[in-house]
């Protein structure tokens, strides 16, 4: 990867790592449906503001909008809900760790769906090393109560949806302006989630704590609107498999922030697992050595 790709990659990892902490804060006062509804609404408003400032030309045919609307369901509404619902019974650190399974699902889906993102020995070695680091981080929670199993399963399902969506973005949004890749899916996500709020929560209870509103604003503007712009940029620049490895940063950021601000436990597994994750990123993104051409 080029330096500009690494900078975007690290920034995206930092933003999404902290999102797990903000979700944990917000879900204490709001239900997961309301949380996601406000998150996508604020993200959409951010996207609309950027579109107006940049004077981005909007597509006029449904064929151009349909992939974006589908991504609003598979890449935003459902995963956001599943993660927020799951964090009602599991720590934010555990959610961050489980979300780091995205690259493992992505590499398989991309291999069978894309011509330029095939499984290689180097990529597979890096992914398995990173997964070993994730497994080591997860080992500290191996004795979690049975009540958290469904919460963990919800986050893993969200990872599968993220993996499929990343590949779909690469295939179907090549000619779509960057900000539309971010804002377009938020249109359908916002519509679906607010319909769910009005259907399941009567009356709709608004948060009262300022920290909850801060969490929702961060998750919407930074964690959704801006972050998806960065993510879709990377998907088209370096491919969905490499981009998905940003989730390997989540356990480090999620565990550290969870320990610092939410008083969650931090153990030796964090350091050992973190080292493996860093090694995996270096291995996967190392430029292959080109063999000299043979003589005639």
Uncertain regions spanning at least 5 consecutive residues = 289-296
How much of the sequence lies in strands comes to: under 5%
Number of domains: 1
User: Sheet with the most strands?
Assistant: none
**Rg from Cα:** 19 Å
Question: How much is the average pLDDT?
Answer: 82
Shape annotation:
globular
SSE arrangement, N to C: HHHHHHHHHHHH
What is the helical fraction, as a range of percent?
over 70%
Give the count of helical stretches. Answer: 12
**Alpha-carbon distance between the termini?**
33 Å
Number of strands: 0
Question: Which structural class do you get from the secondary structure elements?
Answer: mainly alpha
Topology readout:
Elements: H1 3-26, H2 32-54, H3 62-86, H4 92-99, H5 102-113, H6 121-138, H7 149-172, H8 178-200, H9 210-238, H10 240-244, H11 250-261, H12 268-285
Helix pairs in contact: 1-4, 1-9, 1-11, 2-3, 2-8, 2-9, 3-7, 3-8, 4-7, 4-11, 5-7, 6-12, 8-9
Give your account of this protein's structure.
This protein has twelve helices and no strands. By secondary structure, it is an all-alpha fold. The chain has one domain. The longest helix has 29 residues. The two termini are about 35 Å apart.
Q: What labels describe this entry?
A:
mainly alpha; 12 helices; disordered C terminus; globular; 296 residues
Offer a concise description of the structure.
The protein has one domain. Mean pLDDT is 82; it is low at 289-296. The chain has helices spanning 3-26, 32-54, 62-86, 92-99, 102-113, 121-138, 149-172, 178-200, 210-238, 240-244, 250-261, 268-285.
